[in-house]
Write a structure and sequence with these properties.
It is a single chain. This protein has about 170 residues and is an alpha/beta fold. It has one domain: Purple Acid Phosphatase, chain A, domain 2. Helix content is about 20%, strand content about 35%. It has a 6-stranded mixed beta sheet with strand order 4-3-2-1-10-11. Strands 5-6-7-9-8 form a 5-stranded mixed beta sheet, with helices on one face. The model has no long low-confidence stretch (mean pLDDT about 95).
Amino acid sequence: MKIVVLADSHDHLENLKKVLAAVKDTDEMLHCGDIIAPFSVKAIGEQYSKRTHIVWGNNDGDRKHCEERAKPFSQITIHGDDAFLVIGGKKIAMNHYPDKAEDFAKSGKYDLVCYGHTHRVDLREAGKTIILNPGEVMGMYDSKAHYALYDTETNKVELKSVDANPA
């Protein structure tokens, strides 16, 4: 299975839509927080029909309305602060913060640990665990909207980007 991993879209709909168009052929999505507003949840629901897992970030202020906006889209699950999943036989933990990601990775329980928050790409291994921050969809630090593809069959991550409109 191919899983797309996103983080820190920060309501930048133009970049989010570009990324969603590029990942239509993936099987599931993980969003590691800072979606921000309900209209971004709606955009994901309308443009990505596959199973979508979302965790909260530190800037997700209108959580109640984000959850309401997600209800019509049966493919979207908002897990709260953390998510612990099994997808394609791989154990995955995700949250928004790097320190929690480190703790999850140190436990040795997961094949993949994903996080966001820093807006910077981070791809490394800790024992048998891949630690991944896909970077930001927002496009604040460079002219790219970043995301990652994780293949559960090969246990490999591919870092990707599309040209971004400046944040």
